[in-house]
Prior knowledge:
This protein is an all-alpha fold. The chain has one domain (15-142). Helices cover 90% and strands 0% of the residues. It has three helices and no strands.
Amino acid sequence: MASTSSGSSNLLPNSGSEAEVLQALMDQKKRKRMLSNRESARRSRLRKQKHLDDLMAQVSQLKKDNGQIITTLNLRTQHYLVVEAENSVLRTQTMELCSRLSSLNEILHCIGGETQSPWNFLSMNQQPVMASSDIIQYYMMTT
């Protein structure tokens, strides 16, 4: 029995030192894992910050682009309104000129008859047709 107790006492000190070694290894692995986790978290924060910075730069660029588009749109709208006003004036003048031409054609038709060409009346009259002052002013503005 003495040998068993001495044999078991030999195991206990060995078991104690092995336990301490195992505990030290586990502590070392735990510290290494904690350091690894901290480094991974740091890299994750850096990636997140870089992504946020990139998004903020993109927002800034998009705002700038949007401002330029709005400015261009406003200029185009102003130009469109000017052209539309000019077209309206031209349509009105076209209608007025068509009405005058129609009236002149009716006069020529009444004077010359249906068989005579309206242009023959001009050669018979031998006097120039006078333009109204508003047509002359329009002609002067466009040239």
